[in-house]
Structures are given as structure tokens and as C-alpha cells.
Amino acid sequence: MAYVIVDTCTKDNLCVEACPVDCIHPKEDEEGYEEAPQLFIHPEECIDCGACVPVCPTESIYPLEELPEDKQEFIEKNAAYYGL
Fold first, then answer.
1. Domain interval for residue 55
2. Which of 37, 46, 47, 50 is spaced 20 to 30 A from 65 at the CA atom?
3. What CATH code is carried by the domain that includes residue 20?
4. E strand or H helix at 11, and its extent?
């Protein structure tokens, strides 16, 4: 997993638009979008390009190696969203 989205995500979808490989879900038109507490990055599909980071207005996307200690649970939460 190259990047992780944490609980400060407001689902503004700017990261979805910036992602060149379509690895951030759920999208607004997908089932479960309204119920999802945040967006999630697919850990196996992310190509580590970093395009999502600068567009996030809440600074909710971190490179795995820079994820704060108190946000480590989101590594598993992002993977679990995709059933991994």
C-alpha cells in the first residue's frame, strides 16, 4: 500500500478525480457511498504516484511511511474496505 486515507476525509472526491488508476472508492455513483464514513485507497491498485495528496483539502491522505502513529489503524481499514 502506497497511500492511506484517514478519518478526516470529507469525501470531497478531488482525490478520485486526480487518481490516474481509479483506485479510490467509493465514488458518488457507487452503492454504499452515502454510508461510507470516508474514501479508501485500494492497497494493491495504487501506483504510488501521489496525485491524490496535494488535492486533498483536509490533508487526509498519507504516504504509508509517513502515517502518524495514532492513525495506523487506517492501514487495515483501507485494505478491509476492499476485502483484503
1. 3-81
2. 37
3. 3.30.70.20
4. none
